[in-house]
Amino acid sequence: MSNPQNKPSASNWFRWFDPRRRDVGTYAFILNRITALGLTLYLFLHLIVLGQLAKGPEGYDSFLKLIDNPLFLFGELLVIAAVLIHGLNGIRIALTSFGIGVSTQKQLFYATMVVAILGSLVFAVRMMIG
Amino acid sequence: MAEITSKQSSNEAGWLWLLKIVTGLLIVVILVIHLIVNHMLGTEGGLLTYADVIAYYQNPIIPIMEAIFLICVIPHCLIGLRGIFIDLNPSPKTLNGISWLLTGLGAAFIVYGIWLLLAIVAQG
After folding, report:
1. pTM as predicted
2. Domains of chain A
3. Contacts of B73 in chain A (CB under 8 A)
4. Which residues of B touch A65 (CB under 8 A)?
5. Which of A78, B1, B44, B119 is the 20 to 30 A CA-CA neighbour of A25?
6. CA distance B122 to chain A (A)
7. Residue B64: which domain range?
8. Is residue B66 in a domain?
């Protein structure tokens, strides 16, 4: 590696999160990792909460009542946005891993983010109407 | 200009990278089905009622699909977490410990998830 600061170490670990003076590819990396951490949290909460389903309808119905408010709805929107960003960017990573679209990967990244933003807006509108 | 750490410099084995790509693509396909069914076909504001969930799981394709989803998403997630730990530049011994810890956690959640799927099917 040309830049010694990029050598992995505990002391500069948070550099991955630092958005200053970055190339677009690094923004993709930062976004991918933030959404990954958010989705990891969601996945394990989701699996634990769904344990209610094994206990019968009472626990499940009371959970549905608990999450029926704007705060949880906003949280769900964040999950949808994270899924779209991480999933679409992930498809780009998969393609470039197999040598497809390497020369246009910046444009591909911009395109995936436009789709992710539009998709999130569609869900936001749906949530506000519903 | 900051560089993106490549698979060569991140010490993540190539086969783990490939596993993350393959599970990632399977997750995309299954997640689309999972989200459409759970949030667009329901009767209660998009969410399925308890009875709907139980009825939905009586079709054997569904618990099988959800089990495949579980078996893809847990390793995908934990390989990713391991990649973040690698950025802390752990010693090979520490990384080995982290790998075993994550493997144990993943195995426990896969067993729990499959138990949960069977428990849901059994309610029908």
Report:
1. 0.86
2. 23-129 (1.20.1300.10)
3. 43
4. none
5. A78
6. 9
7. 14-122
8. yes
